[in-house]
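Chain A, query sequence.
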Amino acid sequence: MSNPSGQKENNHLSQAFTEEQVAKRWSLSRKTLQAWRLNGGGPVFIKMGKSVRYLGADLTAYEEANKKASTSN
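Chain A, predicted structure.
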């Protein structure tokens, strides 16, 4: 049975990603993500005990909010 249009995209948006996965996705160190969580300024995250997760929808929203057309803005 074929998937309805957009189902794969919706699955990605609701998927939870680990710190390691996000660091790899953005070519950042885990330490950068940890500093963002401590100081603010990064994407929102979920913390359950010691586990940290980032929802795909939140990562996409953060990427969209940080799009730039120039380095001067």
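Strands lie at 16-18, 46-48, 51-55. The mean pLDDT is 88.
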